[in-house]
Amino acid sequence: MNSMRISNSFMLCIGLMLLAVSCTEEPQNIQELLPGRWELQQATRNGEPTRSLADLYYEFDADGSMRTNLPVAKGESDYQISGQSIEQNQDGNIIAYTVASITDSTLVLQTELRNTPFQFNLLRAIPNQE
Asked: Which domain of life is it from (predicted)?
């Protein structure tokens, strides 16, 4: 009876460990997935939907350069990736974004601008077929 209890406890522990491993999100390769043009699908300011950024886009090049029409950082700048963070450097003005999620077609960025939290849900733009 005692060996049966130990065996069941052991199997339970193994099962819980396997469940914990399977529930852990694998880190995404941001460097590989980020290059391209991303267009805003939805934005929130302080957790509330906002339409003031309706035409927002980001274009990331693999060489570390980017373009955006974000009002506080409009134009071309450089960026660096560190873990789950992207730092945009535009003439010494640094804007830090956290990559909440990224896939081949969706990108969710979080940032704080002028002490206000924002979240940008972006979709990869389909390149023009010419």
From this structure: Bacteria
As a three-state string, the secondary structure of the chain is CHHHHHHHHHHHHHHHHHHHHHHCCCCCCHHHHCCEEEEEEEEEECCEEECCCCCCEEEECCCCEEEECCHHHCEEEEEEEECCEEEEEECCEEEEEEEEEECCCEEEEEEEECCEEEEEEEEECCCCCC
Summarize pLDDT for 76-120 with one digit per residue, the tens: 999 999 999 999 998 888 999 999 999 999 999 999 998 999 999
Domain that holds residue 86: 30-124
